[in-house]
Structure formats: C-alpha cells, structure tokens
Amino acid sequence: MNREKPLETRSVLNRKEKIVFLSVPESLRGSIETLSSGPAGEGFSIDPAIPIPVELAPGVEVLNLEELSWEMILAGMIRVVAEDPEGRNARYYRGFVLAVKPDILAEFTTAALLKAHNGDYALALEIIGLLEGLFPGLPALLLNRALILEEQAHTRTGLAGAQDLAYKAYQALLDLHPPFPQGIFKAGFFFMKHRYFEEARECFQAYLRLGDEPEKQEQARLMVEAIQTYNLDDAMFREAYDCIREDKAAQGIAKIGNFLERHPQVWNGWFLLGWGLRKLGRWHDGIGAFRKAIELGGDTSDTRNELALCLMESGEWVGARKELETALWEEPENIKIISNLGILALKTGNPQEAAGFFRTVLELDPHDPVARTYVQG
C-alpha cells in the first residue's frame, strides 16, 4: 500500500468524490502501532470485520488496490463520520483516525482559522464540519464555527443569511451543558454588536457567575453596566431594531422615537432612527440623526458609512467621501465601505477609480455580487 503522502486538509475538502468500502487488506491488519505518531495508537486495534471507507481520486470510479494510500483511507473515514456522526461504525472510524493522526484537531483547526483569515469562509466552515464529525459536541469547535460565521457576516455583505447563521451558532453555544464560559463571553459581544442588548446582558451576567479570567470578568461587568445605564435592554429599543431590520421602517421609527423621548442621550437610539430614515429615503433627516449619534459617542464605521449613504443620495459628494474614508481607516477591509466608495466614484464621473475599488472588493471576496456586476458589466 502506498504510504508516501501524508493526510492534508485539502485531501478531504471541497470534493464530493466517490467513497468505496473495502475489506481490511492483509497488509493493514495489526499494523496500527507502526502508523501512529503518539500514544493514541497503543490502545487501538484494527477490527477486520469492519469495512474501510476509501475516498477515490477525482474522476476515478474504480479503485486500483496498488494505488491505495493512507491518505485515501483517512480521507474516506473523515468524510463518512462528518456526513453521519451517529452512523453504525462512526465511533470505530473516529478511533482509527485519531490513532493514526492524534494531532488532527490542532492541525485542521489551524487550517480552518487560516482559511477564514484569508477570506475563504466556505472552506473554513467545511474544515470545521469535518472536525465536528470527529469530535461531536466539542465546545471549542462550536465556538470557532460561530466566530467564522460572525466574521463572514461582517465582511461579506452579499452573503444572504450569514448573520442569522452566526446567531444560531451562538445560541448552540449557550445551550451547552455544562456551560462553556468562553463561548458565553464571545456570544455577549456578538449580541452587543448586533444590538441584541437583552441577550448580551444575560450573557455577560452569566459570565460573571461562571468565568474565572479577571480581565474578562471586568469587561463583562462594564458591558452590563453600560447596557443598564443607557437602558439598551429596553423592549422598545429591541422592537424598533427588529422592525427596521425587517424592512418595517415606519413602524421602527415610531418605536425608536418613543425610546428617544425617554432616553435622548443614547447614541444607539439615534443610529436606529437614522437607519430607519435612510431606508425610507428621508436623506436629510437621516443625516441629522447620524450626526447626532456621532455627537453622543457613536463614532463608529457603521455610523459613518450610513451617514455617507444619506449624503451621497443628497448630492453631497465631498462629505460622503470624507465619511467613507474615515470609516475605511477604521476598517480597511470592510467590503461594504469599499463598494460604497466605488459607487460614489461612479456617481461623480470617475469610472476608472470605481473599477479600482471594485477590483479590491473582488480580491477580498471573488463572489461579491455588487462588484462583479460593475466590473463585468
């Protein structure tokens, strides 16, 4: 059997190659100790009664036994347990893989995080999915899935449903028993970022009870204090946010107006008001709301970007560009901001400059629909 190629992440990713099952070859029986690079193999023995899944090479329909390799066997086992974690022989295949590759969790996790860092979120999530088959319910993997989805939702504005998937991933972390403090802490910041303030407060309060890292305890305490001080967990605020997010801007504006009557110094309320006004095409009113949010402490890239959109639609090109450049300084790889700079360049009669912005977007996300439309059209 060919043993030259080591198992690599690319061996089991982005492929739906054929899996075949073989009886255990004579050359494999009793040889697990010689293959394992750690103590995991010492307690594992090969069961000749259990067939071995083998992943065929791309385009291959029939296995040539002379080309059988450990890479093909391990790739097949990983695929099988990922697709059916509760399958008949899943436990045995997990033990087999871990006996031969005891460091696979660290190796594949590093690969997944590197892919996510480089913007290849689909591949990163596929790697995490493979590991979840090998280590079902492992809290660290659930957290990595949530973090990758959150980053995907933040940077790829054309991806439908990414934020909802991230929300569900964090909810899965919160449902773990026993609780996973690190996941609860990260979930708090996700909810805070997306203005689910009641859920954020509950997460940070839970971390104060369960966490044991002093620095994070202090961060959680400050977050709870901020939410309560500015009444961000007010039901009216959440209802307003949900309405505007669901394209019920008029209803959302009415609700956030009620909130601002009671809490006029909360910048988040002015941001929501501006967001709703922008969705209704009330550009000048939106400009005022976003500037008020910045004045009260909401000087974020999101606020600047939204303000720029209102300025752009009002024909205030110079002001819009200034706001977008300020936002880009804070988040230099934010596709939404770069795309808006491209649109602004088109509106001001600079197609070459616009093409440069859209090419930058495609370098970060080759599938971005806005940039592809302008570059290819």
Describe it:
By secondary structure, this protein is mostly helical. It folds into 4 domains: 92 residues, no CATH class; 125 residues, Tetratricopeptide repeat domain (Serine Threonine Protein Phosphatase 5, Tetratricopeptide repeat), CATH 1.25.40.10; 88 residues, Tetratricopeptide repeat domain (Serine Threonine Protein Phosphatase 5, Tetratricopeptide repeat, Alpha Horseshoe), CATH 1.25.40.10; 45 residues, no CATH class. 64% of the residues lie in helices and 2% in strands. It has 19 helices and 2 strands. Strands 1-2 form a two-stranded antiparallel ribbon. α6 packs parallel to α8, α11 packs antiparallel against α12 and α13 runs parallel beside α15. The longest helix is centred in the middle third of the chain and has 17 residues. The radius of gyration is 26 Å and the shape is globular. The N terminus is likely disordered.
Shape: globular
User: Total strand count, please?
Assistant: 2
Number of helices: 19
**At the third CATH level, what is the topology name of the largest domain?**
Serine Threonine Protein Phosphatase 5, Tetratricopeptide repeat
- Percent range for β-strand residues: under 5%
End-to-end gap: 52 Å
Radius of gyration: 26 Å
CATH superfamily descriptor of the largest domain = Tetratricopeptide repeat domain
**CATH architecture call of the largest domain:** Alpha Horseshoe
Would you tell me the overall average pLDDT? 87
CATH class of the largest domain, named Mainly Alpha
The major sheet is characterized as: 2 strands, antiparallel
Strand order of the largest sheet: 1-2
Unreliable spans: 2-15, 36-41
Order of helices and strands: EHEHHHHHHHHHHHHHHHHHH
Tally of separate domains: 4
**Overall helicity:** 55-70%
Question: Which secondary-structure class do the elements indicate?
Answer: mainly alpha
